[in-house]
Amino acid sequence: MKVDSEDMILERLLGLLDRFDQQRLLVVGDVMLDEYLSGSSDRLSAEAPVPIVHVADEDSVLGGSGNVAMNVLAMGAQCDWVGVIGHDEAGRRVQSLAEKGGLDTRGLVVDASRPTTHKTRVQARSQQMLRFDRESTQPLDISVAGQVIEAVSSVAAGIDGVLFVDYAKGLFSAGVSQRCIEVLGEASLPMAADPKESLDAFRGVDLIKPNLSEAEALTGIRVGEPPESGPVLAALAREMPEVDFAVTQGRLGMAVQEAGKPFRDVRTWSRDVFDVQGAGDTTLASLWLSRLSGGTLEDAAIIANAAAGVVVEKVGTAVVSREEIRSRLPRAVAAFREEE
Fold this sequence. Notes:
Layout: H1 6-18, E1 24-29, E2 31-40, E3 54-64, H2 65-74, E4 78-86, H3 89-101, E5 108-111, E6 117-124, E7 127-134, H4 142-155, E8 161-165, H5 176-186, E9 191-194, E10 207-208, H6 212-219, H7 230-239, E11 244-248, E12 254-257, E13 264-266, H8 279-292, H9 297-311, H10 322-338
Parallel strand pairs: 1-4, 1-8, 2-6, 4-5, 8-9, 9-10, 10-11
Antiparallel strand pairs: 2-3, 6-7, 11-12, 12-13
């Protein structure tokens, strides 16, 4: 069997990247506001044995599904976004950040009965010292769930693919995910999901991308160290034989399995990891854009490895551009070929 050279693989993947701007995605998922308080710390408090952080900088960015949507835009595609925020200051900041970033906020449903998920991280010398969360994980009220489904239905005619982003904050409870999948399935739209706790909530999608710890929880299988994802993928495939799976494995890259085919490890290169926060969001966006642009699941995983290689070297919740992915693709391809 003919094996493509690195140059041939690279040329094919660059062609996929060039087609990202032909895609319009719908991102549906839990909305978060990620806030960062950064400064210096050189002594302990006299009140308790805890460090004092002298805050020098404050910043807020979109987290959760908002970070996925911002990555989709940064990679050159268009994006619609549906989620739920509270009637609060954090919700207003989410709307403002989205508008500044070029995201349409008409798909954000306001629920006055719950707070906007808001995570505040205190950092010193690029190290996280503390995080405190304000959120509700209760199921959506029936009327709010209906508004979410209506928002999804209203944009279905103009999109090319869908991403469901689950952070277990209550959005996909009360049958919301299944009703959305029904509506989008009627439009024959390809769908992918990043599940947190349940496979059943996303039956009917075409691709599922958990990380390794989520895959272990979903299947009840522990893979050990170094991880061997074959048994986990086999268990996932038995549960959903018609679905493609991609399991992210951190520094080891990704393991993928197209429906009805053997699994394949798609390794990445060794790198200095500064911050893994948001890497799954970047991976999901680049993986699905690659698939929608005509790539195989293996092709998509190489591109996603390149994208993840960029974002882990950034501090905090961050996005990755097509140009940054393009610059890392040769290393991602070389690492993939080393494993063949």
